[in-house]
Amino acid sequence: MLTSLRDHLTSPAIRTDGLSRQFGAVCALDGLSLEIPRGIIFGFLGPNGSGKTTTIRLLLGLLEATSGSAEVLGYDTRTDATAIRERSGALLEHCGLYERLNAADNLDLYGRFWQISRDHRRARIRELLSHLDLWERRDEMVAGWSRGMKQKLAIARALLHRPELVFLDEPTAGLDPIAAVTLRDDLSRLTAREGVTVFLTTHNLAEAERLCALVGVVHNGKLKVVAPPAQLNAMSETPRVEIIGAGLTEAMMEMLRAHRGVVSARADGRCLIIDLKHAADVSSVVAALVSLGYHLETVRNSAGSLEDVFHSLVEAQR
Ligand SMILES: Nc1ncnc2c1ncn2[C@@H]1O[C@H](COP(=O)(O)OP(=O)(O)O)[C@@H](O)[C@H]1O
Ligand SMILES: [Mg+2]
Fold first, then answer.
1. How many degrees, rounded to 5, is the angle at CA 40 between CA 235 and CA 70?
2. Ligand 1 midpoint to CA 314 (Å)
3. Residue 124 above 60 pLDDT?
4. What share of the chain is helix, strand, coil (3-state, %, to 5)?
5. CA of 50 to the centre of ligand 2 (A)
6. Least confident interval from 193-197, 200-204, 276-280
7. Is the CB of residue 223 less than 8 Å from the CB of residue 217?
8. Nearest C-alpha to atom 18 of ligand 1 is from which residue?
């Protein structure tokens, strides 16, 4: 008994071996073998229909594997799904909130479900809502809330019973860019504070890059690569330069986008980020900018984007 308890505590958060799921002729997940250590945010990144939600459902024991196996927190999904679900939180496609209840009552109801004592429930609800800047609004009915606020509350709900692991299925999908950034910041702060392992799915590269210590790229049910985002960046072959200066105009952006050496260009504050076809194209790009009146300060090489790698991994399969 003691040995097995120790095994559970020292096991990786998630370990899968050839995990597969077929739906009729569709192979939603094809031989996933993966090990995710505890205490990190893992990003499962892939376009729509690549098998992300199926994977979460398999890991929670909500769906049976066609072949292969998985252990979550040291428990087998086939035989110990209840133990897994007691120790995990989940935010799936449907946020699971009661629209006609206020925020605090939504969490309270959930806390009762987990049989958390009244005092602990109160303290925990206050703690989570405060950290998400929702405490002042706890008495408002959820129906009137923005999608971003509802997602935050749904995350609080998933964390309420202090799970060791939390599954977040596309937590920022459908949010406007500002709400998405806020939610990401809250997520990284809160999960670090709670020391919880996070399995997060996303089709958003920037999100994976920003939040995750480890990213797995999945496409058509197949795992393409698992690596820290920085390492994925280094796999990029597209030369990228960052140009810092002043006086950027819309005409300059148009010139860049039309330039034959430029793959893509975007401005981020005073920084211009340009992906080039060839590293040698940098001089003609800079010259063209300056001739249009740009005040150049610095040009530096930068790693290519995760986006390039993602595309090359996905393209390679086509
Ligand atoms: N219950 C189901 N019945 C039939 N096909 C399904 C079912 N669930 C998922 N699929 C199919 O499996 C593939 C992967 O789906 P899913 O895991 O939802 O992808 P993602 O979450 O990455 O968008 C898709 O082709 C989808 O249509
Ligand atoms: Mg999905």
1. 90
2. 18
3. yes
4. 40, 30, 30
5. 8
6. 276-280
7. yes
8. 53
25 within ligand 1 shell (Cβ under 6 A): no
Whole-angstrom distance, CA of residue 200 vs CA of residue 82: 21
Mutation probe of ligand 1 site: the residue of 21, 22, 23 with most atoms within 8 A of C-beta: 23
Show the CA angle centred on residue 253, arms to residues 174 and 175, nearest 5°. Answer: 10
CATH, range 237-302: 3.30.70.980
Give the distance (Å) from ligand 1 centre to CA of residue 24: 11
What is the per-residue pLDDT for 305? 55
Q: Which residues of 40-55 are buried (b: 16+ CB within 10 A; e: fewer)?
A: bbbbbbbeeebbbbbb
pTM of structure? 0.79
Residue 306: which pLDDT band, with cuts at 50, 70 and 90?
low
- The minimum-distance atom of ligand 1 relative to the CA of 46 is 22
Alpha-carbon distance of 241 to 315, in angstroms, equals 24
Which ligand sits closest to the CA of 49? 1
User: Could you tell me the CATH superfamily of domain 2-233?
Assistant: P-loop containing nucleotide triphosphate hydrolases (3.40.50.300)
Answer yes or no: is the C-beta of 23 below 6 A from any ligand 1 atom: yes
Neighbours of 141 (CB within 10 A): 14
- Tell whether ligand 1 has an atom less than 6 A from the beta carbon of residue 53: yes
Q: What is the pLDDT of residues 241-267, one digit of tens each?
A: 889 999 999 999 999 999 999 988 999
3-state secondary structure of 173: coil
Distance 49 CA to ligand 2 centre (A): 7
d(CA 145, ligand 2 centre) in Å: 24
Rounded Cα–Cα distance for residues 44 and 13 (Å): 14
Residue ranges of domains in the chain: 2-233, 237-302
